[in-house]
Structure formats: C-alpha cells, structure tokens
Automatic annotation (TrEMBL):
InterPro entries: DinB/YfiT-like, MST-like
Superkingdom, taxonomy of origin: Bacteria
Gene3D superfamilies membership: dinb family like domain
Pfam families registered for this protein in UniProt: MST
Signal peptide extent: none
Protein name: Mini-circle protein
Start and end residues of each stretch annotated as Disordered: 18-37
Length: 186
C-alpha cells in the first residue's frame, strides 16, 4: 500500500459507529433473547452480520489485499477461513472420518484468497453453505450439555467456540477494512 487512507465512517449520529443505528442490521434495541441457546445464537448472528458489513462495498482486489507483510491475512481470507472452520466444527459432532478441507492444505484458505471476482463469489457462497450446514447439524442438539464426538465435547462449548472465532476475526476485519479504505466503526 503506497498511501494511507483517511479514516471515515458512514455514520452521522455517532462518529465511532459503522452505520447509523437505524441502518444497522444487528438489532440491539429492546430486550435480548430469552434463554441460553437463543442468546448464543443471537451473538453468533451479530458477528456474522459484522463480518459481512466489513466486507461490503469492496471489490475483489480490496477484499484480497493482505494486511502487512509477511501476513497472509485479508478480508477474503477471513471469509474463506470461516467457511473452512464451520465445516471443521461439524467434524466434532461425529465419530467418523472428517469432511475434506474446502481449500486444501493448511493456510490455503488465506493463501488462495486472490483478487478474482469469481473467487470472491465462491468464498461467500461457501461461507453461507457451511454456516447453514453447521447450524442445521447443531439444531439436532437442543440440550447444550449434550456431549458429542470422539472428544466428548459439549454442544455449549462448540457454540461458544464459534462465537469466539467470529469475534476474534471481526476484530481482524476492523483493522483490515481500515487499512483498505480507512472506514472505521464498531
């Protein structure tokens, strides 16, 4: 990157927000959801929205732009990585052979994030498909204390781990987006 982008936000109400509250798809008004499962799902949904928002409006080159050398991290790489880990979490549910990796060898999710519009479209399709498949698989376990798989892991732990993964990577996405075009906000 040859020049530093100016910091900016689309929000007009609060200068530290990504968008104005009325335009934010992450509904935070009113009471929160009832129950542990609904609360966990609500947090996961919010982080999924945040990731998509951080990628919104960028072209393939911007999405594939690496942060700082030697890092391979990019917004597109994060999308591909989260598709990969959604698939991997389903492997924890059963005792059979794991599903094959989407993108190949370790770090291929980041290394293969290239500035190609077809690759961008494919990555977002992969992410939606893998999220839906994992959500569907986990819906078979309404009791969060149910233990599954060869590691005897609780469904609750899998859900919390997913939230942790998205939260951490949304933090990365904040910095990556600011580096791309200067846009900031929660």
């Amino acid at each position: 990157m040859t020049e530093e982008p100016a910091r900016w936000t689309r929000a007009t109400v609060f200068p530290d927000m990504w968008v104005d509250p009325a335009d934010d798809p992450r509904d935070t008004e009113g009471p929160g959801p009832e129950g542990e499962l609904a609360t966990l799902q609500d947090f996961l949904t919010s982080y999924r929205h945040t990731l998509r928002m951080k990628c919104d409006g960028l072209d393939a080159e911007q999405l594939a732009r690496r942060s700082v050398p030697p890092s391979t991290m990019s917004l597109l790489g994060l999308v591909r990585h989260l598709a990969e880990v959604e698939r991997d979490w389903r492997n924890w549910l059963g005792e059979g052979d794991p599903a094959p990796k989407l993108y190949g060898e370790r770090d291929a999710d980041f290394l293969g994030a290239v500035a190609d519009p077809a690759e961008v479209a494919s990555a977002f399709t992969d992410l939606r498909r893998e999220q839906t498949a994992t959500d569907t698989a986990l819906s078979a376990y309404p009791d969060l204390s149910t233990r599954v798989g060869t590691d005897n892991i609780a469904i609750r732990e899998l859900l919390v781990h997913r939230i942790d993964e998205y939260a951490r990577h949304c933090g990365h996405a904040d910095l990556l987006r600011e580096c791309v075009d200067g846009r900031v906000g929660q």
